[in-house]
Amino acid sequence: MSSNVITVPVGQTEARPWVDELHQWLTTVDHKRLGILYIVSALLFLAVGGVEALIIRIQLMHSHNNFVSPQVFNQMFTMHGTTMIFFVAMPVLFGFANYLVPLMIGARDMAFPRLNAFSFWLSFLGGLLLYFSFLGGSGLYGAGSAPDVGWWSYAPLGARAFSPGHSSDYWTLALLVSGFGSIGTAINIIATILCLRCPGMKINRMPLLVWMNLVMAGMVLLAITPLSAAQIMLLIDRYLGGHFFDTQAGGSAVLWMHFFWIFGHPEVYVLIIPCFAFMSEIIPVFSRKPIFGYPVMVAATVSIGFVSMSVWAHHMFTIGMNSYANSFFTLTTMAVGVPTGIKIFNWIGTMWGGRIQFKTPMLFSIGFLFQFLIAGLTGIMMAASPFDWQLSLSYFVVAHFHYVIVGGILFALFAAFYYWYPKMTGRMLSERLGKWHFWLFLIGFHLTFDVMHVPGILGMPRRIYTYEPGRGWDTLNLIVSIGAFIQAVAILVFVANLIISYFKGARAGNDPWDAWTLEWSISSPPPAYNFATVPTVASRRPLWDQKHPEDPDSRYE
Amino acid sequence: MQIALLLFWSGKPLWAVEPGDSTAQSTSIFSSASTPAKSITDLSAFVLVITGIIFLVVFAMLLYSVVRFRGRAMDGGREPAQVYGSMQIELAWTIIPILIVVVLFLATARVIHAIEDAPEPVGALDVIAIGHQYWWEFRYPKLGIVTANELHIPVSNLSHPTPTFLQLLSADADHSFWVPQLAGKTDLIPNHPNRMWMDPQRTGVFLGQCGQYCGTQHAKMLLRVSVDGPEDFARWVRAQQIPAIEDAGAIAGRRVFERNACMNCHQMGGTPANGRFGPDLTHLMSRATIAAGAAENTRDNLRLWIQNPSAIKPGSLMPAMKLSDADLDAVVSYMETLH
Question: Which domains, ranges and CATH numbers included, belong to chain A?
Fold first, then answer.
């Protein structure tokens, strides 16, 4: 090349910003960007898991339907469950935790930014690995495609004798890989909260969202590790001739159940506690009052964390445990209801005497309270183990946990989206579309999941690709399916709102909700490294103190 | 909608569903016909009432606060009184739920004990139920009977009980024995024998199906329990105890059966066929259905099932036999002699 100046073609320089931008997103270690990556990847998987749910519901619209084969149906419910728990619910909650925890404690990033990025990419690639089974699952042995053994993969169905292809291996490895990601994020959240709080933010002044994510992260460490151990044992069974769960060689199917559910039940709380966290931030702001009973809320959260570690076998009431074991797990399961009830009372106590503003985040929060109340009460029904001998493994249980996961967790998440989207993007979500989204989703939700309890009571088991006519299940299933489509429409409204508002939404400003925690003290979206000067706080509501210097919270704490 | 929900959660529509459905075809958990199922129904009624009351109280509080404390335009941006909590109130809504939990637990523990720890009386019938992908094997060890998919048990009289005690085993994956009107479900798990019992108080056919996902055809692993009067049951037992009927007219079909792979999997009492992988066919025609309840036991269905099981139950482990038409007719005719 001569010494002449090289003229770069104009088009190429215009393309560079996109490449740079992409490069920045792929290599970022910024907690805010990683939070958004978690949330966006979860939304993508939500769409996939949602389509799987719709396929299930079309197949079950009437008895002896032939929309899909039993093999495909079994793959659909397996993939739907695995996707929604591991690649939607957990990542989206980790995403919010990642985004909000440092902002709320006045930190400039998470404690371990590189570990943070590593954990995200592990989780995300775990999800891609799971879906690669559709392409690579039939593999060498010609059997199976996507995993079809249910999201618990109960032994011995997961053994080589029953799952000869590689589909189960994709499931195992996907959970193992994303599990390591979850453990990394949990360690990071704990370290961040313990070490990076700004001056004045004593542990009893942390916002409840931070407290609850601390408990959640601790539970992740305790819950994911046995799952990972079990996956490794399953791999040893499948490839190294182990017999942990191989019943044909003297292994124990029940051992797998214990391993799975000692993960599986705390997992429910891993998912719901961050949603309690959203409620504990959103309800006070829109009621214009501080949270009722802060210390009791913390105590209730910690005790849920402890007690929920000893309830796992309530998923196993039908496996023939003796009467003492059944009684023990009945008692512990009912006992979890006490601190959970305290929380509901405290949220109502927060609203009591307030001036409630029915903005979209608050609408979803009220929906959450109503549905979570019902979900808790059906949970009490099933905690009574003899009642569970009838209800377990039926559509009643499916309705119950969707009441928790959709009626509770998803409603709380929608509230969080409407509440923090202005902080993340600098734009408000449309209230008009938000109300459409709320009412459509509420109607669809109740049509689907209220009605779904009834076929369970009428003896319809879960995980059946078709059913016999004449049992009184047809009409009910049709209604359930119609509700599912209404929910799908509501989700489309939500996605449209996310996209349209990103470009055309009203400017949010720093503090659109007149809120009280630190994230609202800086610009929207927050600058890199968040706080130009590290803030100092004197109470649980630093921005209240700032806005009401005549009557600061610090006077009462 | 709220009112409908209230009614729903107070349990009323659930009971209202019952009358129209209380025929023998019902699988409602509330139309119980046996002691274990009845005590569960009673416990559930108690739990439903308690949870219904909790729902009404909490929902009323929620509704009241949403309506009463809604923000109004005339507030003029003033903040309400900032209340941080109250120890007395917190104590109240901690202690009251604890008391409710204690009551619910004691009521539940009583039922757990009554059902699980019930001793087996002298007159009880013992049956071994073995779950297979995707059918049920029933063995009556004291009576020397082996049958499949349709369990026959005697009706039980409260003054002179003849309950049935099932030992639950599995030949392959996990299954669950669930006939809602007779008892709650119990799983059949390999290497983990379980037990359950039932004492049906009225005769009739009770339907159920496998409750635990067991593979491709979990959906069509149906279950029928025929509860017979004492004489009917005795007659059924006698008929099942004799070996397979040898009908000279069906000898051609029997040859087809014994020359092909059929006899590797199926047992035929009194003949060399002693396979155990598939259902015992000694008295096939005494059953109302084939393929674990997936189809009625008719000549056409038998023919279709033998030729191509996937047409009735895709994923079933019975292979398509690919017989010639003549052989197929002969073997179906043989099946039809197996009363």
Answer: 29-551 (1.20.210.10)
Q: Enter the pTM of the model.
A: 0.93
Where are the alpha helices (H) located in A240-319, listed in sequence order?
Answer: 253-287, 294-307
Tell me how far apart the alpha carbons of residues A409 and A224 are, in angstroms, rounded to a whole number: 19
Distance, CA of A300 to CA of B132 (rounded, Å)? 46
Instruction: Write out chain A residues lying below 8 Å of B93, CB-based.
Output: 341-342, 345
Separation CA B187–CA B218 (nearest Å): 14
A373 touches chain B (CB under 8 A): yes
Q: Note whether A386 contacts B: Cβ–Cβ < 8 A.
A: yes
Q: What is the pLDDT of residues A212-243, one digit of tens each?
A: 999 999 999 999 999 999 999 999 999 999 99
**ipTM of the shown complex:** 0.92
Q: What angle do CA A107, A110, A111 make, to 5 degrees?
A: 100
CA distance A172 to B169: 28
For residue B32 the two structure tokens come to 């119980």
- Give residues 244 to 303 of A whose Cβ lies within 8 Å of B: 247-248, 250-254, 287-290, 292-296
- Give the Cβ contact number of residue B167 at 10 Å: 16
Which residue in the set B21, B65, B189 is minimally distant from A348, CB to CB?
Answer: B65
Helices (H), chain B: 2-9, 12-21, 35-68, 87-116, 230-241, 251-259, 262-265, 299-307, 325-335
pLDDT in tens, A14-73: 567 888 889 999 999 999 999 999 999 999 999 999 999 999 999 999 999 999 999 999
Q: Strands B150-154 and B175-178, how do they pair? A: unpaired
Interface of A with B in 50-69 (CB under 8 A): 69
Q: Angle, to 10 degrees, between the axis of helix A113-136 and the axis of helix A70-82?
A: 180
The helix (H) or strand (E) run that includes residue A415 is helix A411-425
Domains of chain B: 2-69+85-116 (no CATH), 125-241 (2.60.40.420), 248-335 (2.60.40.420)
Q: 10 Å Cβ neighbour count for A173? A: 18
User: CA-CA distance, B244 to A451, in Å (whole number)?
Assistant: 49
Cross-chain residue pair B93–A342, CB shorter than 8 Å:
yes
